[in-house]
Amino acid sequence: MRNKLRRMGAGRVLQISGAMVLLAACLAVLGVALSRNAAHRDFICYWSSARLLRARANPYATQAILDIENAAGGSYREPFIMRNPPWALFLIAPLGFFSAPVAGFLWLLTLIGAALLSIRLLRGEAEKPPLVVYLFAPILGCAMAGQTSIFLLLGIALFFRYQEKWPFWAGVALVLPAMKPHLFLLLWPILLVHSWRTKEFRVLAGLATGLGAAIGVALLFDPHVWSHYLAAMRAE
Predict the structure, then answer these.
(1) pTM score of the predicted model
(2) Angstrom distance (rounded) from CA 174 to CA 128
(3) How far apart, in whole angstroms, are the C-alpha atoms of residue 101 and residue 222?
C-alpha cells in the first residue's frame, strides 16, 4: 500500500513538474513573440504613458506619446493615447521603469495571473472548471493585445466574492472596473440605491477610499493630471 501511494505521489510530482516546464516554455515562446511587436499592441499606450509618468511629465501628452511609441518600433501617424481616467495610472506606472519588451512580458504575466485569479474567485467552491474556460476567446484576446479589461474582470470577481464578508475591501476592488466606468453604467446607480436602501455604506466607503488613493498616486507624478486628461479627451 505504501509503495502504491509512493508511486502515486511520484507520478503526481512528475505531472506537476511537466506542467510547469510546459507552461514556462509556452510563456518563453509567447514572451519572445510579443516582445517583437510590443509597439503594435494596446499595451504600448500604457507603456508610453508610464514612461512619461516616470519623468513626471504629462502622461496624456499627444506629441510626446507619439515620439515614444515610434521610438519603440511603432509606425503611428497619430498617437495611440491611453483613454483611461487618472485613477487608472497607478496600475500602469511600474511599466515606465522597464524597456518596452521587458515591460510587455511582465504585463503579460500580470494579465495571465489576473485572469487565473478571477476564474478561481468566480468558481468559488464549485468543481474545477473545464479547460475551455481558460481558453475563453475574450480573455486570450485581451492578453494578446495587452488590454486592461482582464483587470476589470478581476475587480468584479473580487467584489462579488467578498461583498458580504469584507464589504469595505470589496468596494476598494471596484477601483479596477472603474478604470472603464462607461462599461458599468448600470452598476454605479444600482450600487448607490442598494447602499441607500440597506443603510450599508461600507462598499461605497471602500470605493471612495480606493479612488482617492489611486488619484493621489497620479497627482504625485503629475500635479496637473486632471487638466491634462480633460484636454487630451477633448482633443480625442
Answers:
(1) 0.80
(2) 26
(3) 25
